[in-house]
Write a structure and sequence with these properties.
By secondary structure, the chain is an alpha/beta fold. It has one domain: P-loop containing nucleotide triphosphate hydrolases (Rossmann fold). Helices cover about 20% and strands about 30% of the residues. It contains 4 helices and 7 strands; from the N terminus they run E-H-E-H-E-E-H-H-E-E-E. A 7-stranded mixed β-sheet has the order 1-7-6-2-5-4-3. A hairpin with a 2-residue loop joins strand 6 and strand 7. Helix 1 crosses helix 2. The protein is globular and about 35 Å long. The two termini are about 20 Å apart. About 35% of the residues are buried.
Length: about 150
């Protein structure tokens, strides 16, 4: 599926619609360059999962994982500062990926065991949803949403 948004508010709304479809155990992998809107989409998804509108979802760039409470736990992982897959393996994220909540991962390309090789995803994360965000124009975001089943 493909969607286009023309503002941060539209990206939030798209995320909220997606969040309402997710259930405990789901994993969403987010791909896109810096400033693509991964965190904005995550904020909307969290709202769709029942996070209170006043609660702020921030990018966990320095803490790596933030947990929020909605209808189920929401785990927001940001791998931006991670250098290698080996570093990710040492973080103990297995419980997060296979726990009782919804897991959202920014910079998900770092979960692949070999850089640039999208065939060897670590942790055996299947099924999952992959969302790739492109920036065709300064105020436009294109979302390619693909469910990945084993």
């Amino acid at each position: 599926m493909q969607f286009t948004t023309h503002s941060g508010e539209e990206t939030l709304q798209l995320g909220e619609r997606l969040g309402k479809l997710l259930k405990p155990g789901d994993v969403v992998l987010l791909f896109g360059e810096l400033g693509a809107g991964k965190t904005k989409l995550t904020q909307g998804i969290a709202q769709g999962l029942g996070l209170q509108r006043g609660e702020y979802v921030r990018s966990p760039s320095f803490t790596l994982v933030n947990e929020y409470r909605g209808h189920c736990p929401i785990y927001h992982i940001d791998l931006y500062r991670i250098e290698s897959y080996a570093e990710i393996e040492n973080l103990g994220l297995e419980e997060t990926f296979f726990g009782d909540g919804v897991t959202l991962v920014e910079w998900a390309e770092k979960l692949y065991r070999k850089p640039g090789d999208k065939t060897t995803l670590g942790f055996g994360i299947e099924p999952r949803m992959e969302i790739t965000i492109a920036i065709p124009d300064e105020s436009v975001r294109q979302f390619d949403i693909q469910p990945e089943m084993p």
